Amino acid sequence: MNKISTLITIAAVISVFISTGCETKSQVHDCVVTEVNEVGELNKTTARLEITGMMCEVGCVSKIKKELLEQKGVSNVTVNFEGDRDLDFATIEYDPKIETVASLTSAVNNIADGKLYGVSSVLVTNYAPSAAN
After folding, report:
1. Domain holding 65: CATH number?
2. How confident is the model at residue 121 (pLDDT cuts 50, 70, 90)?
3. CB burial class (10 A; 0-12, 13-18, 19+) of residue 53?
């Protein structure tokens, strides 16, 4: 019985740390979207989201990555976080036939009812093999 109480206490402390360790109020920004086409080996589309409000590498990065990977058309997510920056980045490889920039930004903006993170800009890159190849 004592081990169960200890485990419950540890779980409660960890959940409080994760839920409050990243807590900050981010400002809602108008999201600027830029789209470019590049030559690449494969046909693929990536979106680089500039994200405000990230405070920690463990909780914030994990939550954002988890939420984005739950989107049906997302195949890969990489989050670039540094504690001393105002803006951090998530690079998402996705299928534009299934997902939109709006659905990706909403997945981040809607975490914790919009109280934590905000997407300020998105750079969409469409890769395709060169027509000369």
Report:
1. 3.30.70.100
2. very high
3. buried
